[in-house]
From TrEMBL:
Gene3D superfamilies: 1.50.10.20. InterPro entries: LANC-like. Transmembrane segments: none annotated. It holds the Pfam family LANC_like. The lineage of its organism: Bacteria, Pseudomonadati, Bacteroidota, Chitinophagia, Chitinophagales. This is Lanthionine synthetase C-like protein. It comes from the Bacteria.
Length: 406
């Protein structure tokens, strides 16, 4: 059932592809100018992610130049690993993200071999063991922990039941709710209950939703998904005078100190959590609860950048292109024009900036690692890849969305 059926439209809205292609050309130039400075091989902040942009841009433009640039980065990554370069095992900056990138490019027909042929079948056993060890330390982080590994293995059709058993064993139950207490990386936040998509309970729920499509234990998993959804639903703010829907990631209070961009962020904001709940409740056929979530998503669609608060963050993790991407997903699912308008609004911030806004200049000239300036979640290749996906068919977005729990 579509809770927004009465508001949907038969009109198919389209973005200004001329503007998007102009931005893509700028991004390709800036990536190429700075390729030599990328010092991270990972998916979210390094060469793997930038290579994805190049290969997708090759498909978009049919220019062999971008196929060659993407291929060059993949070869550099493999050379680094063959020389014994140390990487973390996780999704964001480590081995899991690298092999997921390689498998994705193989499935798209850009590479001749999957990761299994390159690294051997023991790769999967090693990643499974690392995920279980990480869960023993309460590391449920998607970007930097066990959940990203689990999502990758599940996407490859591997047996993730040992990891799932550990997740279930580690869960906490109160009444009809189930939740997890992820490790908090900052010692300043020891008592925080993390509800977020990239680092906390919404991320656990999102990965469980991916597992549901392939598991034989559907009844058991649906019960856990229902209980996890109940826990997140209880976290919704009931005070209409307060702008935040879920507790702030840092303060754990319903007090906004970080601006609209953080409220709507994919990683830790309201939008990422709400989208995950919407997916879960839709699968569970909980129409009444989903109507409430869709009303909150509509509220998010009306949010606008605060005048006088400086240039908005442009990037995927907690910036304009991430907002635009999620609202586009909602528009494609519901055909509700409000979500298209919201997506277009955040895209216009990027278009108007011409990638010369102060936030972009500050990041390019900052002391941040060079890879982050070009990467998928905090850099310009993520803007570029998302722009291409906005012009792509649903199948392309859904395939790519696995990596971002969308």
């Amino acid at each position: 059932m579509n809770p927004l059926k009465g508001n949907s439209s038969n009109v198919k809205h389209k973005y200004d592809e001329g503007k998007l292609n102009y931005l893509l050309n700028l991004i390709s130039i800036k990536c190429e100018e700075n390729n030599i400075y990328i010092n991270n091989d990972g998916l979210f902040n390094g060469k793997s992610g930038v290579s994805l942009f190049y290969f997708y841009y090759y498909s978009h433009t049919k220019s062999e130049k971008y196929f060659n640039l993407g291929s060059k980065l993949i070869l550099e990554i493999l050379e680094d690993l063959n020389r014994g370069k140390l990487v973390t095992p996780y999704l964001s900056n480590g081995l899991c993200g690298i092999v997921w990138c390689i498998d994705h490019l193989f499935e798209k027909g850009y590479l001749s071999d999957p990761a299994e042929n390159i690294f051997g079948v023991k790769l999967y056993d090693s990643l499974t063991n690392i995920a279980i060890e990480s869960l023993s330390l309460n590391n449920y982080d998607y970007s930097h922990g066990a959940l990203g590994i689990m999502a990758y293995l599940n996407a490859r059709g591997k047996d993730v039941s040992p990891i799932l058993r550990k997740i279930i064993d580690n869960s906490n139950s109160i009444g009809n709710e189930v939740f997890w207490n992820p490790i908090i990386f900052s010692p300043a936040l020891p008592h925080k209950k993390d509800l977020t998509l990239a680092h906390g309970n919404a991320g656990v729920l999102a990965v469980l939703l991916q597992l549901l499509e392939k598991t034989k234990e559907k009844k058991m998993l649906r019960e856990i998904i229902k209980a996890s959804s109940n826990y997140l639903l209880r976290g919704i703010n009931r005070n209409s005078n307060v702008d935040l829907i879920f507790p702030d990631y840092v303060t754990n209070e319903y007090r906004n100190e970080h601006g609209i961009n953080m409220q709507l962020s994919w990683c830790t904001g309201d939008l990422g959590i709400l989208y995950t709940l919407h997916k879960a409740l839709n699968i569970l056929n909980e129409d009444k609860e989903n109507e409430k979530i869709m009303a909150l998503l509509e509220k998010c669609a009306f949010k606008r950048h605060e005048i006088g608060s400086g240039s908005p963050d442009l990037f995927f993790c907690h910036g304009c292109i991430g907002h635009a991407h999620i609202f586009n997903r909602l528009y494609r699912e519901t055909r509700h024009s409000l979500f298209f308008t919201a997506s277009e609004y955040w895209l216009n911030h990027i278009s108007e900036s011409k990638l010369n806004s102060s936030i972009y200049k500050n990041q390019i000239n900052s002391d941040l690692p060079n890879s982050m300036k070009l990467g998928l979640i905090n850099g310009i290749s993520g803007i570029g890849l998302s722009l291409i996906l906005l012009m792509s068919p649903e199948s392309a977005i859904r395939h790519f969305g696995e990596m971002f729990l969308l």
